[in-house]
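Give me the 3D structure for Transcriptional regulator.
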Amino acid sequence: MEMRHIRYFLMLAEEKSFTRAAARIGIGQPPLSMQIRDLENEIGYPLFNRTAQGVQLTEAGRAFLQEIKPVTTLASDAIASARRAAMGETGILRLGFTGTAGLNPVIPACIRDFGQAFPAVHMNVTEANSLALIDSLLQNQLDIAFIREESSLPAGIDSHRVLQEPLVAALPLAHPLAKARGKVELAALQHDNFILTPQETGTSLRGAAILACRKVGFEPPEGQPAPHIVSILSVVAAGLGVSLVPESMRQLALSGVVFKHLKSPPPMIGLAAAWNASAFSAPASNFLALVKML
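Predicted structure for Transcriptional regulator (294 residues):
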């Protein structure tokens, strides 16, 4: 039994005429009659009484009609569900972001807009360092990760720059420049210890800070390493050093930390969306399309 047998049976039961049923289906009357005969042979009993005026359901036909109607509804629902999944309107979207990326207001805005556009897609969100996120992309455990731009990415990982934002100096409250008016020179921090992420947890923010210092003529002395943005600012608040962080981190407003803009041209750091090109789901494609509209 195939779906066309069921469709033809339902149409004939409704029209009570081979001629009218065949016309609505769009086939000739002999092929319709043959398909109905095949269905009756498979069931083992006639489903219709043929008369000069048309056809009427037999007892077997009425029983078959009652049981088969829910099947057609389920089949239609299954087809619609498959189409929605193929278009990325349902399913799961697995997102990851670093601590600094997740605090940029663009990221929650993207998540909010996607949720409004695709309410049937369930989003799983993970926070980790950039190296862990990239590894999760490679292992197909994430669909899209927001990371600070890396100088290079593993083969198979593609990325799209979402934005660039300036780095600002994070100073302890007791630092001589904390109460300075206006912007400060980065070179004025050359004798301070810099609180940076350890290389094994990610190179983007660390690399951007070191490069910025080198561009103004000094190698930053490294103080106590800290793996996450909150721990970096906590160490700065404790007076153990200074750091360079993305401007969007100012919203943390951590007690004991003063954020100062750097004089032009300020060093910049990028924010990128990365994904595994060989394992890209339909919801991920829709999400990325939204991100690229920014």
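The beta strands are 48-51, 54-57, 91-97, 121-127, 144-148, 157-172, 243-246, 257-260, 268-276. Let me know if you want a second pass.
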